[in-house]
Amino acid sequence: MPAAAPGERRVLTIPNAFSAARLACVPIFVALLVQPDRRDWFPAAVLLGALGATDWVDGFLARRLGQVSTVGKVLDPAADRLLLVTAAVGTVALGAVPVVVAAVALAREAVVAGGFLYVAAAGGRRMDVHLVGKAGAFGLMCALPLFLAGHSAVGWHPAAEILGWVFAVPALVLAWASVTIYVPAARRALAESRSPEGSPT
């Protein structure tokens, strides 16, 4: 596999700092979620929504500032997946998100994460996250805080739950559609790693 360019070996970059800051907000979200009597569920929904809405910022900064790095290519999707899994598990455990939505979302995350790990363990090149998958994750990161707000004490909670479904259904369709893109990409990555010259076979 080709070696990473010198600039891509950087760790301390603005995009990576932003991804790390988003990761640092995960325990704050959990702390808000477990407060008694749902008193902080709406602030938790706002925080989760803000984290989901800033999903694109990491990659934008990396490209805009010329700070694309190998660490960032791993840290950005890792932050997205940790946020999504934490939100799905936490909110479904408290009854704020329909079990079917969480189950379908988590099953997809398990399939994709397992596939990425298999390709890496088999010596395949690192696979990039596809736009369709990012769109699905973004939609779910909009749906989950809306479901959470729908079970909070805010006056417009019925509308929030309806909007949650509006985002959740197409997001789940896109998320699973991306699997059909990742499967041939994984095969190409493995084929390239097995080629004597490291080129596609």
UniProtKB/TrEMBL annotation:
Q: Which Pfam families match?
A: CDP-OH_P_transf (PF01066)
Give the transmembrane region(s): 12-34, 82-107, 135-156, 162-185
Which terms are listed as keywords in the entry? Lipid biosynthesis, Lipid metabolism, Membrane, Phospholipid biosynthesis, Phospholipid metabolism, Transferase, Transmembrane, Transmembrane helix
The text of the family note is: Belongs to the CDP-alcohol phosphatidyltransferase class-I family.
Top-level taxonomic group? Bacteria
Primary location group: membrane
What this protein is called in its record is CDP-alcohol phosphatidyltransferase family protein
Lipid bilayer topology: Multi-pass membrane protein
Cited PANTHER family: CDP-DIACYLGLYCEROL--GLYCEROL-3-PHOSPHATE 3-PHOSPHATIDYLTRANSFERASE 1, CHLOROPLASTIC, CDP-DIACYLGLYCEROL--GLYCEROL-3-PHOSPHATE 3-PHOSPHATIDYLTRANSFERASE-RELATED
Subcellular location per UniProt equals: Membrane
> Which InterPro entries has this protein been placed in?
CDP-alcohol_PTase-I (IPR050324), CDP-OH_P_trans (IPR000462), CDP-OH_PTrfase_TM_dom (IPR043130), CDP_ALCOHOL_P_TRANSF_CS (IPR048254), Phosphatidylglycerol_P_synth (IPR004570)
Under the heading Gene3D superfamilies, the entry gives:
1.20.120.1760
Instruction: Please give the organism.
Output: Acidiferrimicrobium australe
